[in-house]
Amino acid sequence: MIKNKKTWEQAVSVHGEPRLPKDIDITVGLNINGLEKILKIAKKLKFKLLVSDPEKFVKETVALKRANKTKIDRTYINFASVEDLIIHKIVWGRERDIEDVKKILIKNKNVDFDYVLNWLKNFEGILEENLVQKFLNLKREIGL
After folding, report:
1. Phi, psi for residue 35 in degrees, rounded to 5
2. Contact in structure between 135 and 90 (CB atoms under 8 Å)
3. Phi and psi of 70, rounded to 5°?
4. From CA 105, how far away is CA 3, in angstroms rounded?
5. Is the dihedral of CA 120, 101, 60, 123 positive or negative?
6. 68 strand-pairing partners
7. pLDDT higher than threshold 90 for residue 23
8. How do beta strands 75-79 and 68-72 pair?
9. CA 44 → CA 2, 25, 139, distances in Å?
10. CA-CA distances (angstroms) from residue 108 to 23, 54, 105?
């Protein structure tokens, strides 16, 4: 059962620069009981999993616990935390994502860099990309 969601691009408007995205990325939160169904759907749709052990990843994922709950009308929406948004933007790595990270870092002074670096290092092993260095280079570019 999907019990939580958060929108990544809308979180950019909260933590970075307001803009109208061309699409909406949604991450679903589920308890471990819903994992098997999601994995079957992912396999059927031929999605590539970014983690080698999905069960462990679901148990250890803290992004949904760190989300910022915001009430819009009568509905609560969980926007990604600044740190989780930065991590996902670095992992996605598109030009617009990198620009978003720069603006997010400039606007937000209390970023937990240890948390960001830890998760980027974890994703490096999966994606075989130097995400930590990419992030550190961005920080240097904007004078942090």
Report:
1. -65, -45
2. yes
3. -130, 135
4. 30
5. negative
6. 79
7. no
8. antiparallel
9. 19, 20, 40
10. 24, 31, 5
Nearest to residue 97, comparing CAs of 32, 29, 8? Answer: 8
Cβ atoms of 35 and 54 within 8 Å: the answer is yes
Lowest average pLDDT, out of 31-35, 42-46, 58-62, goes to 58-62
34-71 b/e (C-beta count within 10 Å ≥ 16 → b): eeeeeeeeeeeeeeeeeeeebeeebeeeebbebbbeee
Distance (Å, whole) CA 142 – CA 144: 6
Spatial distance between the Cα atoms of 137 and 11, rounded to a whole number of angstroms: 23
Q: Alpha-carbon torsion 136, 115, 54, 25, what sign? A: negative
Neighbour tally for 107: CB within 10 Å: 13
CB atoms within 10 A of CB 87: 24
> Which tokens is 44 given?
């059927």
Taking the CB of residue 127, how many other CB atoms lie within 10 A of it? 13
Q: For residue 27, give the 3-state DSSP assignment.
A: strand
Half-sphere exposure of 85 (CA within 13 A, CB side): 29
pLDDT digits (tens, 9 = 90+) for 69-89: 777 788 877 777 889 889 989
